[in-house]
Amino acid sequence: MGQQATYIEPGNEFNRDMNYIPDRITKDARTPEFGPRDVPLWPVEPGRYRLIAAAACPWANRAIIIRNLLGLQDVISLGLAGPTHDARSWTFDLDPGGVDPVLGIERLQQAYFERYPDYPRGITVPAIVEESSGKVVTNDFPWITHDFFHEWTDFIAEDAPDLWPRELREEMDEVNKRVFTEVNNGVYRCGFAGSQEAYDAAYERLFAALDWLEERLSGQRYLVGDQLTESDIRLFTTLARFDAVYHGHFKCNRQKLAEMPALWAYARDLYQTPGIGETIDFAQIKAHYYIVHTDLNPTSIVPAGPDLSGWDEPHGREALG
């Protein structure tokens, strides 16, 4: 591997760069009903786009799961980068010859540069790439999965779950915002804190949110309403990585997930749902965090533990409805 990226700014708290390629893929390239509207639009078209993801990455894992649940596997192809990368880019080292079999590239960076030769930001997954041109379309992860549901409606499986029920959308927006800022991004604020003060503040915020979730999920099976929604998937991809990496590697160590009864049962419930658990690869998850983050783990040694064998144990959440 080449030169590694750095993730910690000494003395500072972690601030995620949320400036992504804003393009949207919509039905007939129409102006979207939700979210950013004054952005470049691409038409929904089966077989035109390839989702590039990585099993190791929680944001990309979300896109893989949503694609599975909606039954879009035959209309949006999937390419998987390996779990480790250097400062330049995710690479396709899981594929024969280290080359994506559809795009014919070794690094995701090549798809970004095909469209933006001087692309100045990080090369992130998930990304949507146009197969014919090899150009990246978007890497705006919250809207990628949102548009899978709202714009690819003609191709969604008949038995797919309603991941954005109209009557729950306002509450989902509120819950999603808190889950993202306090949990999804909260673990990173702990892990990439550049000072003791930044870490202490991040730690308190994270576990305040986890306590809120533990109480909320003690009385209801799902995060919003009485059915599986995208809100659950957004939380799940962080919970799935909590004991494997965030507890130790990111110092989120007040408790393990397995020591929070409602959250642990809830996470197992989702893990055992078809289309979700099979996307989790703990070996790749651990390799990514412990090998790539050399400023946290200079030796790149991947720990043998913890014991992650309990995910298939009965969860008992059916009793909540």
TrEMBL record:
Residue ranges annotated for the GST C-terminal domain, each copy included: 165-289
InterPro entries hit by this protein: Glutathione-S-Trfase_C-like (IPR010987), Glutathione-S-Trfase_C_sf (IPR036282), Glutathione_S-Trfase (IPR040079), Glutathione_S-Trfase_N (IPR004045), GST_Omega-like_C (IPR047047), GST_Omega/GSH (IPR016639)
PROSITE patterns to which the protein is assigned, alphabetical: GST_CTER
UniProt xrefs under Pfam families: GST_C_2, GST_N_2
Record-linked PANTHER family: GLUTATHIONE S-TRANSFERASE OMEGA-LIKE 1-RELATED, GLUTATHIONYL-HYDROQUINONE REDUCTASE
Name of the protein in question: GST C-terminal domain-containing protein
